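User: Design a sequence. Structure:
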């Protein structure tokens, strides 16, 4: 197996932190049953491949996401490797936070929406109500010394509402951030964003006091824009980037559609540009090939496809 020829790209930061979401965002979309043991092995392999942050699971009600109903069992199986400030879990409300705290979690993420329709569909609440739901979650998490991330979904478009004004995204982001977040993550949940839009939003957030050092970005590849948009954000100075090993997390409505940005595709691009990630691409591809075997279908990642047989 080989990596790209390294030719440093101008204007990129020397190092980027890959925030791996495969075990959570990837597996929450899986139709087939994945055992807790396989999930634990997946997390261990990702950590061994050098992923600095791995979002492991989600303490949402089992009825919302049955695929991640084994969150407590998974963390018990992982032991100390599943805990720490670089092993965040999703929590929607105080009940989820209670379960996460009970499991010994030290980092959590709440997930808000830039649009009313998605807030209703995803959380059963308006944007205002969901921010009020997160308020005690963030306050209590911080009191307990936890690291807290907040996602904003639908930052670049919404399947029901269409275009989402940049000002609307910024307003929600500022309100969510004011709860006391350590990191704000901009999500292109349906993958419709393009590079100019990425620059606009980052610039608009900066003008409201949320600088690039406070941001993460989370792009989806539905329209083939995930890597381009991610590199646009990195060129603007964002140094925390979400991706999913093997591109796990396909759209539940279209069997072959790609979902999250594949970590391998991201690491190939960053390696080639001379941007350090600490990720061992060989070990990561091996992990995704192994995971694809567990799931019974090939990884949608182009880099995994290219390197797996190389
Ligand atoms: Mg995602």
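Assistant: Done.
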């Amino acid at each position: 197996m080989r990596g790209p020829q390294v030719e440093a790209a101008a204007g990129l930061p020397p190092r980027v932190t890959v925030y791996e979401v495969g075990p959570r965002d990837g597996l929450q979309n899986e139709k087939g049953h994945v055992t807790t043991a396989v999930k634990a092995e997946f997390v261990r392999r990702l950590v061994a491949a050098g992923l600095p942050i791995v979002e492991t699971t989600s303490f949402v009600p089992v009825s919302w996401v049955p695929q991640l109903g084994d969150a407590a069992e998974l963390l018990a199986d992982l032991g100390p490797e599943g805990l720490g400030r670089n092993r965040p879990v999703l929590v929607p409300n105080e009940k989820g936070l209670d379960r996460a705290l009970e499991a010994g979690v030290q980092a959590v993420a709440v997930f808000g929406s830039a649009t009313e329709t998605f807030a209703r569909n995803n959380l059963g609440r308006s944007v205002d109500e969901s921010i009020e739901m997160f308020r005690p979650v963030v306050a209590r998490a911080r009191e307990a010394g936890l690291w807290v991330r907040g996602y904003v979904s639908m930052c670049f478009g919404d399947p029901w509402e269409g275009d989402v004004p940049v000002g609307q995204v910024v307003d929600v982001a500022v309100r969510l951030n004011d709860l006391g977040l350590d990191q704000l993550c901009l999500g292109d949940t349906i993958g419709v964003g393009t590079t100019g839009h990425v620059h606009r939003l980052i610039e608009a957030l900066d003008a409201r006091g949320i600088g690039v050092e406070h941001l993460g970005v989370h792009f989806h590849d539905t329209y083939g824009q995930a890597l381009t948009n991610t590199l646009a954000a990195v060129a603007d100075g964002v140094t925390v980037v979400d991706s999913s090993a093997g591109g796990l997390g396909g759209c539940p409505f279209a069997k072959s559609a790609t979902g999250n940005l594949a970590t391998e595709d991201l690491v190939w691009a960053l390696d080639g540009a001379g941007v350090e990630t600490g990720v061992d691409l060989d070990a990561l591809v091996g992990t995704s090939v192994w995971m694809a075997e567990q799931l019974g279908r090939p990884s949608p990642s182009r880099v995994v496809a290219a390197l797996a047989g190389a």
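The chain has one domain: 17-308. The beta strands are 17-20, 53-54, 57-58, 89-90, 107-113, 147-153, 183-188, 215-219, 240-243.
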